[in-house]
Amino acid sequence: MTGPVPELAERATACANRLLEADHVLLASHIDADGLTSAAIAAQALERADIPFETVFKKQLDEDAIAAIADTAYETVLFTDFGSGQLDVIGEYEDAGKLTPIIADHHQPADRETEYHLNPLLFGIDGASELSGAGASYVLARALADAQDGGAAAAADGGTLEAADETTARADNRDLAALAIVGAVGDMQASGGELHGANAGIVEEGVEAGVLETGTDLALYGKQTRPLPKLLEYATDVRIPGISSDEAGALSFLEDLDLELQRDGAWRRWAELTSEEKQTVASALVKRAVSRGVPASKIDQLVGTSYVLCEEPVGTELRDASEFSTLLNATARYERADVGLGVCLGDRGEALEQARTLLRSHRRNLSEGIDLVTREGVTTEEHVQWFHAGDRIRETIVGIVAGMAMGNAGISRSKPIIAFAEKNDEECKVSARGTHSLVGQGLDLSHVMSEASQAVGGDGGGHDVAAGATVPSGHEDEFVARADDIVADQLS
Ligand SMILES: [Mn+2]
């Protein structure tokens, strides 16, 4: 078989065969929505292939983390959603015979190769927008199922993937496509309202396997769980005057429509509306946006492709790829990878309950953080703007806060924002956020974070639109000056 991403098929098969040779495997993954889904996909694939494994999560795969991994009794280590960027360090342990790395990642590789390295960037596929860590893990999972049965499943149905039969989907791991899409959405790969390239191939497999449904829908966050007025009030990607961030406005907009807004004393949610009702709201929303002068290019963004996990109950965050990824991120930011992984693996009891509690407190922290930044303002340099939160915003959420504060009073959307927060007594976490429009003009925050942090004795990286670094405390001003210069070059 060629798998969901033909360019990666051969390498994926080599990685799968190597895994099948192992007596046991250490699965190491990044802690975020993409990392958690990566681990859940890999864990299920390993389990189904009868390969014993243990899972560990790391916030950052730094030298200490790699040393700890090399120190375990495991010889075969499967890294998901990280590993490529740390190949220089991992390689030293490989050379010393301490471990054999198998890597399913999509980040920029360090200057070093290894045999079992599955990364879209090595095969001409964009790792920032076309395939996530979960996507790479999914490609590996598909190859693992295939290597295990020697291609029997593919031969049985003539190599086509038309049967949406659940048993088949599970046997060839296609049911895991839903998690891969949650990971991709969590890594913000759905640019322009939909997933592209290799991700689109995974979506197709998920639809065929009966675990995903796609459709054109309102591109607002919270279609499953938010009460209708809140869905509109909190939607700020496309700002509609009189509705966005306007509680009374959103409510009166809805009340003017001929709609049943409540049922059994509770607000209805978007997912419960009939298609005609959705149509009514969507057209009125577009009409309002037009009449208030929202540009056509922005109005287009009100509609996008929705990714629905159709086996999950209606009205739960698990049914919507975007809400699911947010729930996972909430567990990750508070170092509860065990909870997030539990949810991904199907725990709908205690893990789901804990995840929801974490999400509620996460939202409270975010809104307090955004208030703080907006109240105190940012310092504007020539090409970047920045703030230092000290210990008043957790370093694990300071990047999201920065991104969400962009566009608020005094915080521009035309310059990238850099946020500092205390990590410990010696180190600061730096997070940077841009916009897709700035990326279109040449901004690459991954490069900015990596260069500027290394210049002050730290380290960093990430994606063009969102990246992070850790720097020694006391070097913030120097970091900002460096970053300002690099951004100037990129945008010139
Ligand atoms: Mn990722």
The residue ranges in which pLDDT falls below 50 over 5 or more consecutive positions are 151-164
Largest sheet: 6 strands, mixed
The backbone outline, from C-alpha atoms, is globular
Distance between the termini: 46 Å
Bound small-molecule species: manganese (II) ion
CATH architecture of the largest domain: Alpha-Beta Complex
By DSSP (H or I, 4+ residues per run), the number of helices equals: 20
Class by alpha and beta content: alpha/beta
CATH class of the largest domain: Alpha Beta
Query: β content, as a range?
Result: 5-15%
- The neighbouring-strand order within the major sheet is 10-11-12-13-15-14
Q: What's the number of domains?
A: 3
List the helices and strands and how they pair.
Layout: H1 9-21, E1 25-30, H2 33-48, E2 53-58, H3 63-70, E3 76-80, H4 87-95, E4 100-104, E5 117-118, H5 133-148, H6 152-156, H7 166-171, H8 177-186, H9 197-209, E6 213-218, H10 228-234, H11 247-255, E7 262-263, E8 266-267, H12 275-291, H13 296-300, E9 303-308, H14 321-333, H15 337-344, H16 350-376, E10 379-380, E11 385-388, H17 398-405, E12 417-422, E13 427-433, H18 436-440, H19 445-455, E14 459-462, E15 466-472, H20 476-491
Parallel strand pairs: 1-2, 1-3, 3-4, 4-5, 11-12
Antiparallel strand pairs: 6-9, 7-8, 10-11, 12-13, 13-15, 14-15
Organism: Salinadaptatus halalkaliphilus
GO molecular function, one term: exonuclease activity
Pfam family, one: DHHA1
